[in-house]
Batch of 2 targets.
Target 1
Amino acid sequence: MHSLIIFASGAGSNANAILEYFKKNGKAKVALIVCNKAGAGVLKIAEREGIPTSLIDKTTFNGQVLIDEMRSYNPSLIVLAGFLWKIPDGMTRAFSGKIINIHPALLPKYGGKGMYGHNVHDAVIAAQEKESGITIHYVNEHYDEGNIIVQEKCSIKPNDTPDTLANKIHRLEHLYFPRVVGYLLDKIKD
Ligand code: GRF
């Protein structure tokens, strides 16, 4: 069975969607949840599910100990599910080709430093875009610039607000992210 490591900073609704999906199909297990924010919702989900957690600060995040701990789980994929720090080059190199991220917009537009969560939906609505969506991509040394794996779109109606757009995006994320992880795992020998 494949092992996954999830990085998350917030509510953890994507982490939860992935957990629930693999509880049903048994193809993978979430071996560790790494979080940089004490009290984050994702930590409560980990506790509920009995999943080990690693609460990090900038020092531990940039150190070798965390990489060694991650290696001990022999993860097939490292899944960034709403993680707000840029992955250090040492970690990208240690898990080259194994780190994926989900971004709540159609990259390369509305990506890069500072473009996360509601900032993205605010900018998309302000620009009067007719569509938005999600991008699932590999992580490399540059913020939000790794090879794109999948993009899924949603239309934006004239009466849409950043909040209603956020709901549409979350629905896309919770539907597609677990399935894309499953698709990638099928291509990896475990
Ligand atoms: C999601 O919108 C994701 O696209 C972005 O951060 C948000 C995380 O939400 N990277 P949650 O913590 O999974 O609810």
Target 2
Amino acid sequence: MSKTMIALAPGDGIGPEIMQATLELFKAAGVMQHLDFAPIEMGKACFDKGETRGMTDAAVRVVEDCGILFKGPMETPKGGGGKSINVTARKLWNAYANLRVFKTLPGVETVYSKAGVPINLVIVRENIEDTYGGVEHRLSNDMIQCKRLISAPGCDEVHRFAFRTARALGISKVHCGHKANIMKMTDGLFLERFKQTAKDFPEIETGDVIVDALCMNLVVKPQQYQMIVLPNLQGDIVSDLAAGLVGGLGFAPSANIGNHISIFEAVHGTAPDIAGRGIANPTSLILSGLMMLRHLGLVREAATIENALVATLESGTHTGDFGDKSKPSVNTQTFVQAIVDRLGQKPKIGSVDVPATEAQPFQRPPRPTQMQVIRTYTNVVSHVCGCDIYLDTPLSPVAVADEMARACKDTPFELKLISNRGTQVWPTGSVYTECVDYYRVRFELKKEQPLGTIGQARAVALMDKVAEKFTVCSFELLRQFDGVRGYSMAQGQ
Ligand code: NAI
């Protein structure tokens, strides 16, 4: 039988130690009869060599050939310099859904385990869009912007994945976490597409919850949730909160799933404070590896290893970062040997069934021949109804309004409002509103100008005119789509 090839990046810091331990465990469980690993260059060494992506071209080719990447944690340059390699990898290969499973584990004491509250929670986080596009600009002396991008097809992909996974895992209720009360258009779209997708999974109950309330609910009564699907940034934060419920990042596995390429990784970082000492806890990477084995159809091996791991935790064997401090901790090597010694055993609580036969072997979809354009619509009629012009200026709102009223004279547009940091400051405003050096000036079609008679060129011409006197730092067309306003109102409008 031919083996499946996996691209392997051990990572930085404790990465190589926990990866070696995990592979030894896999070997002992018979996994290597089915898998081969192709080591690739990725992480700190690549950044140090000037590879701004954090990986070599050869590494990219191997991952694309294999379709599966198993990786340890990697050091991310902070602030300036290279972008996070983890984010780059997820985006480059369209691994659009981040799946993380949070389960109470024996021997891992938490506030909840002590209180007898079992936790079994799955979080699906959108992995590509949102502010993680990293589209940022300095707009004036005092203003920086980060664009938050949420697309309908992006939402659909992650929601479909969540519901399909819920179905496979026998989850009866899926919640959508969001902030659609404030970001009515971006989070509103995420929530609307969730409700649309849910219609294809009628047997699964749904609910939605505002993300701040969700955080409180998770701390107060975590057992009320089975699966939560969230946009990228909110999902990032909530999934670390959930990791805290089960004992920390060392116990939370993570899979980044795409249609063609999937990435399995430990969620904790490189732990530079303990790197090289052989004392790191490999549990998160092992659990991520088990998600990978199940993804590849190696369900029997995954169940055998999971039972041995849980039995080991149940026995009280622990590395230095968790467990009963009155008992001496063991190093990484001894911890993994304890799991190997228990292969074939089942824990007293939380054992999983070991199927007699393997599931269907892993089938990779064919490699795409070109970049895909995904869209959800066919014929939408859009009409220009105005534009927002953003200015870098230290003037007062009234002075800006005077200038802008002059600029739009003899054009199809009239000055509608001026806002500063999203709050309306003209035609009405409060003296208590503090302004910075960055204004949004909204022009809308004059009442007598029928919709559909003016194209974008007239709006661009208006911007040109404004730019003769002002620094224009950005520009957005205002459009209606099938008669629905495609832009938000200012606060106070
Ligand atoms: P960290 O997760 O590396 O460490 C936080 C604390 O947890 C430290 O005290 C560390 O010793 C401990 N710890 C983490 N994993 C452990 C394990 N398996 N066993 C025992 N103790 C463990 O987070 P930190 O310090 O914020 O980040 C260090 C580096 O890792 C940074 O460069 C960061 O960018 C990177 N990082 C990479 C990630 C990835 O590749 N997926 C995720 C998070 C951070």
